[in-house]
Amino acid sequence: MSGTPGAAGDLLTGPARTGPDESDWAAAVAAVRRLPADARVLLICHVNPDGDALGSMLGFGLGLRRLGVRHLQATFPGPPEVPEPFRWLPGLDLLVPSTGAYPDPDLVVCFDAASESRLGELVDRLDTAGDALVLDHHASNTRFGRVHLVDPAAAATSVVVDELLTRLDVPLDAEIAQCLYVALTTDTGSFRFEATTPAVHQFAARLLATGIRPGDISRQVFDTRPFGAVRLFGEVLGRARLEPSAAAGHGLVWTYATQDDLARHDQRPYVLEALIDSVRCTAEADVACVLKQVGPAEWAVSMRSKGAVDVSAVAVALGGGGHRFAAGFTGAGSAEDVVRSIRAELDGALIAR
């Protein structure tokens, strides 16, 4: 896509512009433009990548490939396993295990990671790389790296990617569009969340104009899961607990899934990422939480709010981060211990009305 700078940057979810200024965009463009012909570029997204992380990273990687970057890798920390719903994405050939990633790239670009901790064993590349560029949309971003394209008002990191590709004069084609569409639909909840503005739909329309098929994409990303995962969801939802008095009477609903649950149903951990959507629909609770066991006495926690509680404030207080209505952290102890820590933060995170 070619166009004037700022076309994609209009995709904001609020009236105040808190994102990158012109000097930030100029620095990011310069970091790419000055790469020598034999430069090694490493793209990194966060651990346990979701659709926005993978789609943004691969879409940008395809854009760099269009610019003629030849030595290009994409990776993420942890096991090199792409969740099943995303295994069809264009650009997967760019992926390498974290153990095979360039140890000292000329440029490292990080996607959808609010802090260095989300880069896991790849965090050292921030020090060994010639330059470090960060593309993100989390308000809790810690501004690691050198060049920061962080726009908390953007509906998804893919919005930031689209703006940078525009400024780099990379044409928008169907392959890039597929990646960015997956990213956009993932972080807007298939255009159901509050971040879905008229500008978001305009962005989606530009992506659809390349000829991609939204019905096929939605079925693959949102409406397909193994039968074992269906049975697993039923079991985990069956142990959900409702606490109507929590969050000053706004209500809390939560459940948990153990590693034994996954093993019993022969499922991979990524299938649990969609579970929060089934829990958050509980009418009697504003806050929904899903605890996913990742080790002995260790839990990855996903939180959602319908608007009464700023769950990012809860997550930050407990060592994590995210957005006002969608956030997470890593908790320690038993499931009850972790929920107790959440419960203790809810009243202080109420949003004034």
UniProtKB/TrEMBL annotation:
Q: Where is the DDH domain?
A: 40-183
Residue span, DHHA1 domain: 269-347
**Annotated Gene Ontology MF terms?**
nucleic acid binding
Organism of provenance: Micromonospora palomenae
Q: What is this protein called?
A: Phosphoesterase RecJ-like protein
